[in-house]
Design goal:
With 708 residues, the protein is mainly alpha-helical. The chain folds into 2 domains: 346 residues, Collagenase (Catalytic Domain) (3-Layer(aba) Sandwich), CATH 3.40.390; 196 residues, Orthogonal Bundle (Neutral endopeptidase, domain 2). The protein contains 29 helices and 9 strands. The strands form 3 sheets. A 4-stranded mixed beta sheet has the order 2-3-5-4. A hairpin with a 4-residue loop joins strand 7 and strand 8. The radius of gyration is 25 Å and the shape is globular.
């Protein structure tokens, strides 16, 4: 996926030097002014730091002035173009939701009524605070009633219904695995059941853990130990708030941490999870029982409305074996403590202020460095965007995404596809057989722009005006039941992994499709009437990036039908791996400060996407200039404007805590290196800015990474 901006949502505006405080007060006015400050060459010259030489640190040169004048707002872990777009986009959603809230006479079950009631329940903090932890009583009672191992397994099956959806990479579950659905990678004509630990992207937060990733439990460095100490304080505080005596809460917090540490070692590392072969183990009921005999698999399948003959793809067999061991060996009282904790942890941000504040303190301040929560309306807009994605997305698209944008985007996609086809055809290292199959896959690639072809039906979700937590839970259950309902049915390519207002894009290899939500198709990334330099550097590199994911170290293992099988010649696969290893070595070698480095294997797919996307988009841009006069604007040539616009796309700064979190858990490089590391491999950039050997932005020619 594209970012972290594989992120968030939008407004027709560009970024320029300004003070954040002004945006907080007059966001739409400011953003309209920002839209006017871009030069007619499509770049923001006011953002440049001209004291920094382009060949020393191009990211700083392109963005330094804006970064200096725009410190990260207290409510954000990072700040840059995508976050500005996302915040402004939430204001658009607020407009829709406030209007819906006022229309109390809308018919029950209608989109207006659902959106309005959900928003009203979220904004009614007085009612939320008055209820304390009372909304959790039924779940706590269910856990307290556990007397036998059979009761435990039944409770775990029951809690599968209340799993938070994977949409927007934030799936959570009360249990040690999640039962969901997915296209069978080795038979992409069918949908099977899946048992997973987290979503396929491997992004945070983790599905089964209370901290972001397995390594937070296992690393022995001082920072990791300090985070675990603070986690103990956090767990004890939440448990105390829920009614547990203070001394007992501290003991229970220790048991929670020990329980999760015991499980962590059985979970795949993020980099290993990127290999689709490592997460494919299709099993029948007998094989499931042999692997994990201490779960009642018939009961779980029955809970999901599935037959016993349904094939199940087990993503992580070692985790399932460990979960089965825990079910048999861990004392029931300890299991009940952990289940109490997990219910509380997943719910705390939706409960009374003391719970939400403590959840924020650990998850957002300790882990990400954020010191102030979003405004309540922003939080509510985010939650409803996630939990009622199609009703809110449909309203958003109708109001803010004109047909002309979709038409122009379609044209750009085909221009980039043609440029990539040409690159594949010209490749001097691929054998004709592999090249032909690569082009076949490129031609078969489905492109979905703006919004799904068909909106989902959310009319049966039970939404009330006063039960905020229940609304959230009901939406989760609706999503989970929908996932289960797809198992055994014909494959539909309509469902999206992102909402329409999201500022991001993604690629799905088993569906052989790429998706560009309406929320991303806004300036500064995309302007239907804007300068070609900015459009090809913004949305063009994103299109190339997402197309490139179909051919990266993971996507290249799927053929033109989405089947997981090797379609490369042995020689070509070896040559591909050599080229990919160049990028791994490059990112492993980058010291980002405090001795921290990227994990080259973890970020490989995104780094390849960035490099391939920039290369392909540049080629398409040059072709678009054929026969046209090449004007210098604001002192910069067309090529220079392209590369400046590309770097300004990545003009995001992050807090130290957020950087550490991203380096540990995220498969996307830090924004600075998505610009600098990519361009350091491009002779076209070095020629445009007259970089020479020895400059930081010019890797020695024999070390420059190229894919095609």
């Amino acid at each position: 996926m594209l970012a972290t901006i594989r992120d968030a949502a939008n407004v027709p505006a560009r970024i320029c030097s300004m003070h954040i405080r002004a945006m907080a007060v007059f966001p739409f006015v400011v953003l309209c002014l920002l839209a006017q400050t871009a030069s007619n060459g499509g770049i923001h010259v006011d953002n440049l730091d001209r004291t920094c030489k382009p060949c020393d640190d191009f990211w700083r040169f392109a963005n330094g002035s804006w970064i200096d004048k725009n410190p990260i707002p207290a409510a954000f872990q990072s700040w840059g173009p995508s976050q500005v777009m996302a915040r402004a986009n939430r204001e658009r959603l607020q407009t829709i939701l406030e209007t819906a809230r006022e229309q109390r006479s809308a018919p029950a079950g209608s989109t207006q009524r659902e959106l309005g009631d959900f928003y009203a329940s979220c904004m009614d903090t007085a009612t939320i605070d008055a209820r304390g932890s009372a909304p959790l009583k039924a779940d706590f009672d269910r856990i307290d009633a556990i007397r036998t191992r059979g009761d435990l397994v039944a409770a775990l099956a029951h809690f599968q219904r209340a799993s938070r959806p994977f949409l927007a990479n934030n799936g959570q579950v009360v249990g040690l695995f999640r039962l969901t659905s997915g296209i069978d990678p080795k038979d992409p004509s069918r949908v099977t059941a899946r048992l997973v630990e987290r979503d396929s992207a491997g992004r945070t937060p983790s599905s089964i853990f209370s901290m972001p990733d397995r390594d937070y439990y296992l690393n022995t460095d001082a920072k990791s130990q300090e985070i675990r100490r603070q986690f103990l304080e956090h767990a004890a505080k939440l448990l105390t708030l829920s009614g547990t005596a203070e001394g007992t809460a501290a003991i229970q917090a220790r048991k929670v941490l020990d329980f999760e540490i015991a499980v962590a070692g059985s979970v795949l590392k993020n980099a290993d999870r990127r290999d689709p072969e490592r997460t494919y183990h299709l099993m029948d009921l007998a094989e499931l029982r042999a692997l994990a005999p201490n779960f009642d698999w018939r009961l779980l399948l029955r809970e999901a409305g599935l037959t016993e003959s349904v094939p199940v793809n087990v993503a992580e067999p070692e985790l399932l074996k460990k979960a089965s061991q825990q079910a048999a060996e861990v004392a029931l009282d300890d299991w009940k403590i952990w289940l109490h904790w997990r219910v509380l942890k997943l719910a705390s941000q939706y409960l009374a202020k003391p719970f939400a504040d403590e959840d924020f303190r650990f998850d957002r301040t300790v882990l990400a460095g954020i010191t102030e929560p979003l405004a309540r309306w922003e939080t509510c807009a985010q939650i409803i965007d996630r939990d009622l994605p199609d009703p809110l997305g449909e309203a958003y698209v109708a109001k803010y995404f004109p047909p002309a944008s979709k038409a122009r985007m379609s044209q750009l996609v085909e221009n980039i596809r043609a440029a990539m086809r040409e690159e594949l055809e010209k490749s001097d290292w691929m054998q004709p057989e592999t090249k032909s199959r690569a082009i076949e896959k490129l031609n078969a690639l489905k492109v979905q722009i703006g919004y799904p072809d068909k909106w989902g039906d959310f009319s049966k979700v039970n939404i009330s005006r006063t039960g905020f937590y229940e609304n959230v839970r009901n939406a989760w259950e609706h999503g989970q039941l929908y996932e289960w309902s797809k198992i055994g049915k014909p494959v539909s390519y309509n469902d999206w992994a992102m909402t329409a207002p999201t500022v991001n894009a993604y690629s799905n290899s088993v569906e052989v499709k790429i998706v560009f939500p309406a929320g991303y198709l806004q300036p500064p990334y995309f302007d239907p009437t804007g300068d070609d330099a900015a459009n090809y550097a913004g949305i063009g590199t994103t299109i190339g990036h997402e197309m490139g994911h179909q051919f990266d170290d993971s996507g290249s293992k799927f053929d033109a039908t989405g089947r997981l099988q090797d379609w490369w010649t042995t020689q070509d696969r070896q040559l591909f791996d050599q080229r990919a290893s160049c990028v791994v070595d490059q990112f492993n070698s980058i010291d980002v400060g405090d001795g921290l480095r990227h994990n080259g294997r973890l970020v490989l797919g995104e780094a390849l996407g960035d490099l391939g996307g920039a290369t392909i988009a540049y080629r398409a841009y040059r072709r678009s200039l054929t026969g046209k006069p090449e004007h210098t604007i604001d002192g910069y040539t067309p090529d220079q404007r392209f590369f400046i616009a590309f770097a300004q796309k990545w003009g995001t700064q992050s807090r130290p805590e957020a950087m550490r979190l991203q380096l540990s858990t995220d498969n996307h490089p830090l924004s600075k290196y998505r610009a600098n590391a990519t361009l350091a491999n491009m002779p076209e950039f070095q020629k445009a800015f007259h970089c020479v050997r020895g400059d930081a932005m010019m890797r020695p020619p024999d070390q420059q990474c190229r894919l095609w």
